[in-house]
Amino acid sequence: AGNYGGAIYTTLKSGGKLTIAGSCLFTECRAISTTFWGYGGGIYAKIEGENSSLILEDSITFERCSGQTGGGMLLIVQNGGNIKIIGSCNFTDCSSSTSGGGIYLETNDGTVSFNPTEQILIENCNSDNNGGGIYCSIAEKGQISLNNIKFNKCLSQIDGGGLFADINEGGQLTLDKSCEFYQCESYGNGGGICGIFIGSYGDYDPSSELIDLHGMKINGNTADKYGQREYVKGNYSDTYSDENELLGIPLNLSSFNSYSSEEIQQQQQHLEHWWGIFGILNRAQVIVNISNPNGKLIFQIGGQRMIPGYLNVKIFELRDKTQQEIDQEQKEINQLFNKNNLESLIRNSSQFSFTPKIETDNQQQIFINSNLKIKQKLLLDQTNEIIYPPEDGSSTPIQIEGEIQSDQNATFGMNEYKWLNYNQKWYGVLISNNKKIFTGKDGIDFEKDANAAVLLEVIIQEEEKEKGKGKRFPIGIVVGVLVIVSVIIIIIIIALFISNKTFS
Asked: Where are the domains of the chain?
């Protein structure tokens, strides 16, 4: 065909409507010209104005269709028009010499929605520029919703092996209901997320939710950056996924396109740090009481942003105590017990000035007797650290009081206590809501600043000892008995005095 639409060319305005229904097959349709652009290998459609609409339903298949822009279809919707795909639709081996190997979508204040009855398959489609599977241009509050689409083995020579999206001026993109990207490739800078490349002009406000990737799956895709192939995985989990699977760089699109691979690598950041809620730890203490049946170690921590059901606490060795520190503590213990005016001793470490040392070689192991039954199965590794609660769910959950954005107190207990060598070790404490990124003071990541750890304060608590044996009586009864005895003694003394006076 000529420049527009290898099989179908249509323009709808002023409330015009077109429905393509039934079983339709577009095979080796082409829209290529030697002097002009070729738009839409199989279908070219421009929908403009309110109440103007194009509907594709039932079963439509595009095989080996090609165009300079939009190998299978090129769809433009403007000024309140809308396009709907509500049947099944497949694109196989379609290609474009510029953008949109399978489909080119453009909307300016219009709506495009893919709500198929069966999964749409876009397979082995490629473009010499951007968007091997689909190219999206969204502007002026236009909306594109892509649901239940599978991109398989699509390829772009520049950006977005599966999908390329250019969003600006309030445009909205939604990928929902299990969109899938498998083994898609891009050879340009579009490897930010390999299966998808999304760029926008102006700052993006996350609260607007104009980009919604809910339910999307990405797996086995590659991008040619840093001079090597890089594997990119979807189905991201804050708890279990490697944070290197989602990377981004805060640049405008034109600057991004001008950056070299080395510059991108140097400035990229983990995206999880942009949405994660990282706890702030202000204080940490443990009460040691080996006679307490409800927990020989009771931990109490204070801070903010601690999420119930997700909070994890890491306790680890900072360093050995110096002999001077040990002697000073023992001296204080002796003084306090000699005065006999305290029943609990607070080991306050704030009086000592030291720099935490996190050693990696020749570390001493925390001693736990192998004959002990550690019911809580604490996680103790070569770095001498414990993470509570353990993964097997055998422990009591951490109890948290207070709202996330205000001051909070958290408490938990352990019955195993012999690992806590507080006489010879200083311990640090960190918290995490995802068990990967542990933070401390001011919510600072410990891996970035070792001084973020909060020092564990140890309180030694002793049971009150009975000072006598036998049955104890209430103080009121004791006082009453003493009064009666005193009265009897006084009466006896008076009687003796009167008797002596009579005989004399």
From this structure: 8-275, 280-461
Q: Are strands 88-92 and 59-63 parallel, antiparallel or unpaired?
A: parallel
Helix (H) or strand (E) holding 336: helix 323-339
The DSSP string of 352-421 is ---------SSPPPPP--TTS--TT-----TT-EEEES-TTS-SPPPEEES-TTS-EEEEEEES--TT--
What is the pLDDT, as a whole number, of residue 361? 35
275 phi and psi angles, rounded to 5 deg: -120, -10
Tokens at 420, concatenated: 């806590």
pLDDT tens digits along 365-382: 233 222 323 233 344 443
Q: How confident is the model at residue 191 (pLDDT cuts 50, 70, 90)?
A: very low
Query: Sign of dihedral through CA atoms 442, 444, 446, 448?
Result: negative
Percent helix, percent strand, percent coil in the chain, to nearest 5: 15, 40, 45
Regarding pTM above 0.85, the answer is: no
Cβ atoms of residues 241 and 397 within 8 Å: no
Q: For the segment 308-339, what is each residue's pLDDT rounded down to a tens digit? A: 988 999 999 988 999 998 888 788 777 766 65
Burial class (CB in 10 A: 0-12, 13-18, 19+), 311: buried
445, HSE (Cβ side, Cα atoms, 13 Å) = 11
